[in-house]
Design goal:
The chain is α/β, with parallel strands linked by helices and 127 residues long. Helix content is 24%, strand content 21%. It has a single domain, classed as Phosphohistidine domain (Glucose Oxidase, domain 1, 3-Layer(bba) Sandwich). Strands 1-5-4-3-2-6 form a six-stranded mixed beta sheet. Strand 3, helix 2 and strand 4 form a beta-alpha-beta unit. It starts with a strand and ends in an 8-residue tail after the last strand.
């Protein structure tokens, strides 16, 4: 089951975490760096990558953080999640960042560091 939340077509490298992300608390909105030590992607940048994570957590202000990332040219190229949450979905919609929801099986098959192509107008969303 794949579901498109925000349309788009991008190609990039995967940065994957098994941890839900709190965009307001964990991400520097100017640089895209993960600055919270509890994350397995601590000190990694989400700028210009395809961010793969289970879902967002935390305050709805995280949507503004996602929009700020885009405004500072520090946003991911796209986001792939296992479930849609209001914060990430609305942030991606505001910032026009492609977002898709995938099954747990597909999520598990995506490897960190892999090159990936997303095309929401294709029958194969992910290649």
């Amino acid at each position: 089951m794949n579901k498109v939340i925000v349309n788009g077509k991008v190609e990039g490298t995967v940065l994957k975490t098994e941890n839900p992300i709190n965009f307001l608390g964990a991400v520097d909105k100017k640089t895209g760096m993960i600055h919270d030590k509890k994350y397995d992607i601590f000190e990694k940048s989400i700028k210009d990558i395809v961010l793969v994570f289970p879902h967002g957590i935390g305050s709805s202000v995280g949507a503004y953080t996602i929009y700020s990332l885009k405004s500072h040219q520090s946003a991911p190229l796209a986001m792939i999640c296992q479930k849609a949450d209001l914060t990430v979905a609305s942030g991606c919609a505001l910032a026009n960042i492609p977002m898709i929801i995938i099954s747990p099986e597909k999520f598990n098959s995506i490897q960190n560091g892999a090159k990936i192509e997303i095309d929401t107008n294709s029958t194969n969303l992910i290649n």
